[in-house]
Amino acid sequence: MQELPEFKAADLTRHTSDLFDAAIRSPIAITKHRKPKFVLMSMHQYQQLARGATQQAYMIDEMPEDLKALMIEGLERDLTKADD
């Protein structure tokens, strides 16, 4: 099984946007007392998991609009951070 990025439960209130940003890219583990207790993931990832899908690949011109918007948002955010 794949190692998940981990965040402390306290980060849910202190660094909410960072957790959401990370969870858009891949599921993340929320730890309590240094042990993974919960998983946070995007709705799209959850729906794929619930349907039994493991991965999907798209050509950019065939990508669903919601995923394309998330991808562009993430790229813009990463480029903005790189400029800082």
Automatic annotation (TrEMBL):
Stored InterPro entries: Antitoxin_Phd/YefM (IPR006442), YefM-like_sf (IPR036165)
UniProt record similarity statement: Belongs to the phD/YefM antitoxin family.
Biological function: Antitoxin component of a type II toxin-antitoxin (TA) system.
Protein name stated in the entry: Antitoxin
Annotated source species: Roseicitreum antarcticum
